[in-house]
Design a protein that fits this description.
Length: 173
């Protein structure tokens, strides 16, 4: 058996017994869980909101990556004729969620498809012009998708939104 003054002793000190006799409310431990939960609930709620925001941003980034891949695949299957890239941009737009296209600026996605050309030895050139003799022309399709994503909850020091961006480039010929 432990001595009564031991630190490991499970008995309450005599002064606490006297206090409990004078004020019976100190003897009762009912409601302790409710008080502890009241302190922890806001912290748990903030962690839950942060997890939701992070997962939403990751999902939006994955949607942007998929959309740029769709544009690149469309450009590879149906090559742009004379620099007309509207069909590529339409393919990217059709792969995005419908509610994204109805959003107002700056939260609507920005889709850009460009064609870049260069000669094999002399470098960059205009796509409509030819290359000097002995060189062949290289054409590249560039698809970019940008979107501003708004946080559900405003976090100190992070602002109210984040800019997401994805870009893919493929050589056509």
């Amino acid at each position: 058996m432990l001595p009564p003054n031991s630190i490991i002793s499970r008995r309450a000190p005599p002064s606490l017994h006297r206090l409990q006799q004078l004020f019976p409310m100190f003897a009762c431990e009912r409601g302790t869980f409710a008080v502890e939960f009241a302190f922890m609930a806001p912290i748990l709620l903030l962690m839950l909101l942060a997890a939701y925001d992070v997962s939403t941003i990751i999902q939006d980034k994955m949607i942007l990556q998929n959309a740029t891949r769709v544009g690149i695949q469309y450009g590879l299957i149906r090559r742009p004729v004379q620099g007309d890239l509207q069909q590529v941009e339409n393919a990217v737009q059709s792969s995005l969620p419908d509610d994204w296209m109805t959003r107002k600026a700056p939260y609507a996605p920005n889709i850009t498809a460009t064609l870049q050309c260069e000669c094999s030895l002399s470098g960059a050139t205009v796509c409509s012009s030819g290359c000097p003799s002995g060189e062949f022309r290289l054409s590249y399709l560039n698809v970019e998708v940008k979107k501003t994503s708004k946080y559900l909850f405003q976090y100190p020091g992070l602002g109210e939104s984040i800019n997401l961006y994805d870009k893919s480039i493929v050589r056509l010929q």
